[in-house]
Amino acid sequence: MTSKHFLFLFFFIFCFSSFPSHARFITGRPSPTGLVSDGISTVKNLPYLLLKPPVSAEESCEQSYGFLPCTTTVLGNMFLIIVYGYLMYLAATYLSYGSELLLEILGPGIVGGLFLPMLGALPDAMLILVSGLSGTAETAQSQVSVGMGLLAGSTVMLLTVIWGSCIIVGRCDLHDSVAIDGTNTKGFNLKESGVSTDIWTCYAARIMAISVIPFLIVQLPQALSSTSGRHLAVLIALIISLLMLVSYCVYQVFQPWIQRRRLAFAKHKHVISGILRHLKKHALGRLLTDDGEPDTEIIRKLFETIDENHDGGLSPSELRALIIGIRFEEIDLDQDDAVSKVIADFDTSRDNLVQEDEFVEGIMKWINEAKQTGGAYLESNAGTFKFIDHFHQQTKREHALLGSEEQSDEVVENVENPRWISIKAVLMLLLGTLIAAAFADPLVDAVDNFSEATSIPSFFISFIVLPLATNSSEAVSAIIFASRKKQRTASLTFSELYGAVTMNNVLCLSVFLALVYVRGLTWDFSSEVLVILIVCVVMGAFASFRTTFPLWTCSVAYILYPFSLGLVYVLDYVFGWS
């Protein structure tokens, strides 16, 4: 069924449900004849013949905004949860699509680092906000568990079910612990197939793990069995959460610039290692003396071979010929930029020529740098050292971990009709925001009513069901990106998952803490906080120190989901821990 048909069906049922309904009242008094009463035979007063509801609408449920339908039945509330959940899914989809269009026009930086993460977390933040604003403080205290359930469920779902699914659909063949783009001949081999990411994804995982600090602060008084400092702990946690939110947004704004600088430095180290390997090869491995120091005589002879016109200085054209001859095929090298950086390293006289003494000093400096980084490994039966080869392999791996330059490029290509795309993006963002704001409160009411009708704690409904609505667009986008089976798309996929969890831990938690502090609510979510801490710390530590994930790692994520749900149930409803 298309979204238009679904909305039409909802509108029809909504209109039908908005009219007052009545039913015949069946009396429970016994019949004087002993026969089964039809409900009207013993009625004395004619007004009882009027069709009336058994329970008044005011006593059964309260309509959201005074006109949206409500019900006290299980099936009715289930239907409303599905409808309102679908509308929240549409809101998340519109926000996601509008954000992508805006990113095409304005590029990363402020848009990609500041607005997009906040817009992605907007549906969750709306649901958390309305869960604590309804009615009196007592009502808000009962409904705020919906917000906490959504916060915990969203975090757990992103890091378990969606994370593990991305590993499965994005798996490639592993060679030397690195996934080979676009290859999948190993099938479902648990050790020889998997996913590789770049180092920036590790940084995103570490930031996500650090973002749980406000949870630790707000939970500290309960851990110490203190009742006097709980309100103050909420305030401190709120301030820390807001500061971390600002810091994270600033990092996201400047991250593309940082990434480009790191990538440029890695390329320069790659040039250094390539030139050293080239010189070692032409010196027959004798760049060093027997005691491991640079051999200046050999270096001077190499200078003479590079100095084609024998004028005692290396010009930019001669250095360019050297770099072209080395053939840096592993990286997309800007040769002119490489030449200028070599000259900047060697040319101490600033005459745009590298003199012989400058060349010797520069090569000696490079060799000492490679020795410190690569280690002085003695080659057997050669009398020379192979740390240059180790330095070269290390620089290649560092460049691969940093990812391609396309990921850090902030230049936005020209798009056709940018004005129309901008208008379309703004309209999508406004529509998504309006839908999320309008239907967040009815969804929370439907969850609360369903909980009362079924005696199922509202936390579990919001933990399992609501994340399916608010995180569906992120889940679909992540799985589609991961299915392209490339390191670049895998890095983007997992970075977005970690970023979404980070926004839950700082933005959504800030909204939640503000509600608790302003309305004077009680913080009694020990088991929920414990689940968030366990999942974030385990997955954060798991992803912070490795860039390759074999297929077996998805089982870790999948096991964490039922473990988290079971842990909350046992702690809250078996041991009564709150």
UniProtKB/TrEMBL annotation:
Residues 294-329 form the EF-hand domain. The keyword Calcium applies. The keyword Hydrolase does not apply. It is found in: Cell membrane. Residues 1-23 form the signal peptide. One of its GO terms (molecular function) is calcium:proton antiporter activity. It holds the Pfam family EF-hand_7. GO terms for biological process: intracellular calcium ion homeostasis; sodium ion transport. GO terms for cellular component: plasma membrane; vacuolar membrane. Keywords: Antiport, Calcium, Calcium transport, Cell membrane, Ion transport, Membrane, Metal-binding, Repeat, Signal, Sodium, Sodium transport, Stress response, Transmembrane, Transmembrane helix, Transport. Its main location: membrane. The chain crosses the membrane at residues 74-97, 109-130, 150-170, 200-220, 232-254, 421-440, 460-482, 494-517, 529-549, 556-575. Belongs to the Ca(2+):cation antiporter (CaCA) (TC 2.A.19) family. This is EF-hand domain-containing protein.
